[in-house]
Amino acid sequence: MTHDAKKGLRVTGPSLEVSAAGGSTAATVSQDGPHITPDEFVALWAEARTAYYADEFPPYASRAWRALRPDDPRRLAAALDAAEKWRKYGDEEALLQWFRDASSRGYVSGGRTAVELAELRRPKPPHQLKATPGWPPIQVPGAPGTYLTYIDERREAA
User: Fold this and answer.
1) Is 150 within 8 Å of 133 (Cβ atoms)?
2) Is the CB of residue 58 less than 8 Å from the CB of residue 81?
3) Using CA atoms, how far apart are residues 27 and 103, in angstroms rounded to an integer?
4) What is the DSSP pairing of strand 138-139 with strand 25-27?
5) Rounded CA gap, 49 and 80, in Å?
6) What is the Cα 65 distance to its own chain's centre?
7) DSSP 36
8) d(Cα 89, Cα 81) in Å, to the nearest integer?
């Protein structure tokens, strides 16, 4: 742990580790880098959120994204978008490959042609109610008080 003279903060982390050979602490990574105040960070975050919700940023890691300055809020917005898509959908290339495999195996359409699928989507004729022996009378939908009852045809003929 050391004291940063510029910010008055104590700096810790992997850059200050005890050397196994000498047993001393040595800085392995330069601590001089871009310093950002909390107000600047909040402003950058707010601008990035605005760009994210307005969908005003280039795709993450694209040529246009790489051309943006590191402190451009659109750069952060694109990273947020990519992270959210990764959280929801995982690896995009693996997802696209799964769709290719599924469609080639016929999972999507079951190997049917467009004409066959259209035929399956056509409405079916309504079911005709029919009384069955051993079952109670069936109330006819839309006709209150009307019932279908099974009548043994052999009994009627006699």
Assistant:
1) yes
2) no
3) 55
4) unpaired
5) 9
6) 22
7) -
8) 12
Which pLDDT tens digit goes with each residue over 127-153? 888 888 888 888 888 889 998 888 876
The single residue listed with the structure tokens 């290719």 is: 100
H/E stretch holding 55 reads none
Exposure on the CB side of residue 52, measured as CA atoms within 13 A: 19
Angle at 72 between CA 30 and CA 85, to 5 degrees: 100
Length of the chain: 158
Q: Residue with structure tokens 């080639």?
A: 104
* Residues in contact with 143: Cβ distance below 8 Å, sequence separation at least 6, in sequence order: none
- Of the two residues 12 and 132, the one the predictor is more confident about is 132
Cβ neighbours of 78 (radius 10 Å): 23
Give residue-wise pLDDT tens across range 58-80.
998 899 999 999 888 888 888 88
Residue that has been written with the tokens 């940063």 in this structure? 4
Checking 29-33 for CB contacts under 8 A at 24+ apart, the result is 31/4
For 39-77, give one letter per residue: b (16+ CB within 10 A) or e: eeeeebeebbeebbeeeebbebeeeebeebeeebbbbbb
Question: How far apart are alpha carbons 19 and 23 in whole angstroms?
Answer: 5
